[in-house]
Amino acid sequence: MENHQNAIPEELPPDKVPRHVAIIMDGNGRWARARGLPRRAGHEAGTENLRRIIRACVEFGVKVLTIYAFSTENWGRPQWEIRALMHILENVIDRELDELHQEGVQLRHLGELDRLPGNLQRKVRQAIEMTKDNDRLILNVAFNYGGRDEIVRAIRHIVEDGIPPEDIDEALVSSYLYTAGLPDPDLIIRTSGELRISNFLIWQGAYSEHYYTPTLWPDFDREEFRKALVHYIQRERRFGKLEPQTSG
Ligand code: FPP
Question: For the chain: N or C, fewer Cβ within 10 A?
Answer without folding.
Answer: N
